[in-house]
Specification:
By secondary structure, the chain is an alpha/beta fold. The protein contains 14 helices and 16 strands. A hairpin with a 3-residue loop joins strand 15 and strand 16.
Length: 425
Amino acid sequence: MDRVKYAAVGCGGMGRRHLNGAVALAKSSQYNLELAAVCDLNQENANWLADEAEKLLGRRPKVFSSIERMAREVDDLRAADVTTDTGSHHTVAAACLEAGLHVLCEKPLAVTTRGCDLLIETAKRKNLVLSVAENYRRDPINRLIRALLDDGAIGTPRLILLHSVGGGDVMSMTPWRYQKHTASMPIDAGVHYADILRYYMGEVRSVYGETRLHEPIRRNTKAAGPGGFYARWIGQYPDTIEATGDDALYAHITFASGAVGQWVNDHAGHGKGFGTRQIWGSKGSIESPGDRNGRPVKLHLDGGVTIDDAKILDYAPSYKLSPLAAELFGGERPWTYSFEFNDIDAKIVALEYHELADCILNGKRPEVTGEEGRADLALNYAPFEAGRLGRPVTLDEVISGKAYVYQREIDEMIGLRQMREPVPA
């Protein structure tokens, strides 16, 4: 099988998570993407990831601090996986594209929609693949939910509730996730849910909402984050940090289909945490178990009927995983699965990697293109902008600059304001 050589650009916690994905792909029958180099301005981090790669993959990738030099010196290097902090995506991914490398970029694609524009335009000019590592939709359980919706299991979708509340005043993973110009938690984490909303329910007509900064001071409890991947760095951060980005999002969404959505993404909730994802239609409702846990979906029908076992597959005849997903998750049509979180995380990254190489080798289009990633980010920012303008906004307004208050300050801070003067709101 032909293999595409790629570089891991960004060697922190997310880079380590992606390395596990590279291992999962290498162990599969469809190993088509090979790690050849790592790159990070922090050479200690780069060497550490290279050492880890040698232990896990049996060979040590070359280490660099310069994307341009790496692209020149590594023979047949064709792609880069960008896992740096969100605030640097627009510069790091752009540098990779300018160096002639196809790019898989962690979500969100950039810290603002204007940053997304830059990457989309650069990829088109260079005729390169730009793919966004949006992982939740690749979870087999979310594939099943999408099939249930497509196949009419609950009739015409009418309402989705997607709520998550928790976090208090605790810092999660890294300080940059609480700064406005590097993507606060409702953006960095919330973009997952923006993508799920669009993946389940289709395109968005308008959004009205508000956001808040509830907790301006965050405590570092030294928690290692999902899967323990951030343990290496958490002790280096101060005991408290000052947050500058809003930490809670509350939105009302109208979809093009006429369906309605209520979305709460509150990272400052105290007391009992809360989360739910449910969809109601003209014939029933779907209760999602969340992401990357393998628990079964619940299909509720009239008359008190609940289906949460293998019979649910009868209501989703179109549900079928890709060959690699079927290999990794134990079948073409799993309705549940049981793996440790780190294994699930790695399997999904492996799917992202495999798709990137497949696109490069066979001229295919990635599932989550730059344009899709930009639309997700626009939905994510829509309640921020709507609250400041005091009116509903469309995604086109957020992308074009007609709704451009919260993002304007960010673009000024990161040097993207001059890219295109926005239309006054």
